[in-house]
Amino acid sequence: MKASPLLPRLLLALAAAASGSIQAQTAPPPTRGQMLYDTHCVTCHTVQMHWRKSSVVRSWQDLQDQVTRWQASARLGWSQDDITQVARYLNDTFYRMPQTGGVAKRE
Ligand code: HEC
How far apart are the two ends of the chain, measured CA to CA in Å? Predict the structure, then answer.
């Protein structure tokens, strides 16, 4: 009887699944800002939205204003803290501007 070709494939799949779960454990957990953004905002956004040349965001204050505007238009009712967290996530990920203003403190 020929050896089943299924077994090596099964072992490979198991190994891949195991290494996947190890990665999931060691990856840093998403920040609150990232979770909020991923849940409510990425539906119409692409990554390019945040580094297009015509970006309306020129400063940390602009970024907070845009996040405020977008969460309002989606009627999410975010607190100032939520807005700051999402602005910080976007800034850390895309804009990399100096964060001015006392509300931009790190956790
Ligand atoms: C209905 C689709 C839609 C949703 C939902 C949405 N956006 Fe947007 N967003 C856009 C479009 C389109 C633009 C670009 C045009 C503009 O600025 O009006 C934009 C632009 C932005 C910009 C400015 C980007 C730049 O650099 O010019 C920010 C910041 C932003 N959105 C944040 C958010 C946040 C935060 C949320 C979630 C609360 C959100 N958006 C949800 C469609 C959306």
Answer: 62
